Amino acid sequence: MINGLEVRIAALRRSGSHAVVQWLLAQLPGRGAFLDNCAAGENPYATCYLPDSVGVGVDLAGERAAAPAPKDFLLHNYEGRDLTAVFSDAAAAAHDGWVGASARRVDLLVLRDPWNNLASLLRWARGDVHPIAEATVAAAARRYRQYARELLGETRTLRHQPVFVSFNRWVAERGYREALAGQLGFPFTDAGIGAVARWGPTAWGDSFDGLAYDGRAGEMALAERFRWCAGDPFYRGLFDAELVDLAERIFGVLPGTEEIAAEARARRARRPMPSLPC
Q1: CA distance 106 to 85
Q2: Is 228 in contact with 119 (CB distance < 8 Å)?
Q3: What is the topology classification, in CATH, of domain 3-270?
Q4: Can you tell me the distance from the alpha carbon of 39 to that of 235, in angstroms, rounded to the nearest whole number?
Q5: Domain segments of the chain: what residues?
Q6: Cβ(8)–Cβ(106) below 8 Å
Q7: 272 — phi, psi (to 5°)?
Q8: Under 8 Å CB-to-CB from 24, ≥6 apart: which residues?
């Protein structure tokens, strides 16, 4: 076996997945690697963003040029990708040739509530550090539905010991994090929980606070990001009744979002009924 534990991670951008990865890297024992922002359906070593990838006792550049060496763990993540492309038959067939055989494989999906996830993306789009297009934010809102249905069990795209992480609960509940460590099979210390993830175009940290809360990330108002843009027409337009329903089934009603949710549902109610044939 080349890899002991292999974790393939799917998440939307600004969903908190990098914080989860940083927490994993702080606790997983032994030698390993994290391959960041890989292309779906392609070799993760060849397509990862190497400057943000991490080798723990391994030479990633050397492995990219030659072949993967034995390691205790391998993490590779896919940001905002179509789940059917990440977890495809073609990727399954090519897996061992790309990364080597693994003793244990886990497919992990991280989901943050859409109110704050999309607010963080919009903040990035309207910021000064390598801003993304607002169309990218709208595309993430559309993609969110696929991830939510997978978490709810309405689809079954993940293949290997699926594990689902609610970022909201991961941030708030130590017991939830301990249970996750148990699912993944490593000793729980909660190391790395206070660090602000530094991945991104310039490793700036959080969309709102940068690295100001590094070492005390628990003090960040992560569940309040939506308030910054709650009155913004573009932001409000990202939500329709379907997205609101999915969000509330997973995360419950987030205080302060009721007006936007009601507006989204009202738009559905006002939609004209299709005409019936005579």
Answers
A1: 17
A2: yes
A3: Rossmann fold (3.40.50)
A4: 28
A5: 3-270
A6: yes
A7: -65, 140
A8: 7, 75, 184, 192
